[in-house]
């Protein structure tokens, strides 16, 4: 299993540039697939650095390494940010995690890293007492939506900041 050879740890301030490189790498690939998802990392990286650094400083961003090399990142916020409030509405307590910026370097695509990260996120948030994980994806990103829908049911498609698909993953306790 891929997860066994991955080191997933909280990102530190020193990891900031590596996290940005992973996001830019993913944004470039997404653009090549004809979607504008994450285009702002290509057109306005400077304007998005503060949010990425804030997530690192809040101990919400993780970096994924294999043999000491950064190959992925994800952010799991324990409280909704402004975007989440727009997409999901008012927070319903502190039992929900919000997944953002899940990215795997293209050199490691198709090797099960994304699936392992989703498994890890579910287990980590379940262990922390969260009842669900929420995330969204731009609706015109058909490939990514297909990927998510192999694993999770589509909750709804909304028209806020453009069309977005919403996903909510219930984190039931796993049977022994």
Describe the structure.
- This protein has 176 residues and is an alpha+beta fold.
- It has one domain: Gcn5-related N-acetyltransferase (GNAT) (Aminopeptidase).
- Helix content is 36%, strand content 27%.
- It has 6 helices and 7 strands.
- The chain has helices spanning 16-32, 40-43, 45-57, 82-88, 113-127, 142-149, and strands spanning 7-10, 61-66, 69-77, 96-104, 132-138, 156-159, 163-170.
- The chain has a 7-stranded mixed beta sheet with strand order 1-2-3-4-5-7-6, with helices on both faces.
- The radius of gyration is 15 Å and the shape is globular.
- The two termini are 20 Å apart.
- The mean pLDDT is 91.
CATH superfamily heading: Gcn5-related N-acetyltransferase (GNAT)
H/I helix tally: 6
Q: How far apart are the first and last residues' alpha carbons, in Å?
A: 20 Å
Q: What is the fold-level CATH name, i.e. the topology?
A: Aminopeptidase
For this structure, what is the CATH class? Alpha Beta
C-alpha-based Rg, rounded? 15 Å
Q: Kindly state the percentage of residues in helix.
A: 25-40%
Q: Report the biggest beta sheet as strand number plus sense, adding barrel if it closes.
A: 7 strands, mixed
User: What structural class do you assign from the helix and strand content?
Assistant: alpha+beta
Q: Tell me the number of strands.
A: 7
Shape: globular
* CATH level-two architecture: 3-Layer(aba) Sandwich
Domain count, please report it: 1
What series of H and E elements makes up the topology?
A: EHHHEEHEHEHEE
Mean pLDDT: 91
Percent of residues in beta strands?
25-35%
Low-confidence stretches: none
Strand order of the largest sheet: 1-2-3-4-5-7-6
């Amino acid at each position: 299993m891929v997860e066994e050879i991955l080191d997933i740890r909280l990102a530190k301030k020193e990891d900031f540039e590596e996290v940005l490189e992973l996001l830019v790498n993913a944004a470039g690939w997404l653009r090549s697939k004809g979607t504008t998802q994450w285009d702002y990392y290509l057109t306005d990286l400077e304007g998005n650095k503060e949010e990425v650094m804030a997530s690192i400083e809040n101990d919400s961003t993780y970096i994924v390494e294999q043999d000491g090399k950064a190959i992925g990142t994800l952010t799991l916020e324990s409280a909704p940010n402004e975007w989440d409030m727009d997409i999901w509405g008012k927070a319903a307590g502190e039992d929900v995690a919000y997944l953002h910026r899940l990215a795997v370097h293209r050199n490691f695509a198709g090797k099960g890293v994304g699936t392992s990260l989703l498994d890890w996120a579910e287990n980590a948030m379940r262990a922390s007492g969260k009842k669900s994980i929420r995330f969204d994806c731009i609706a015109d990103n058909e490939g990514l939506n297909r990927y998510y829908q192999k694993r999770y049911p589509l909750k709804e498609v909304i028209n806020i900041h453009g069309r977005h698909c919403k996903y909510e993953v219930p984190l039931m306790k796993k049977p022994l």
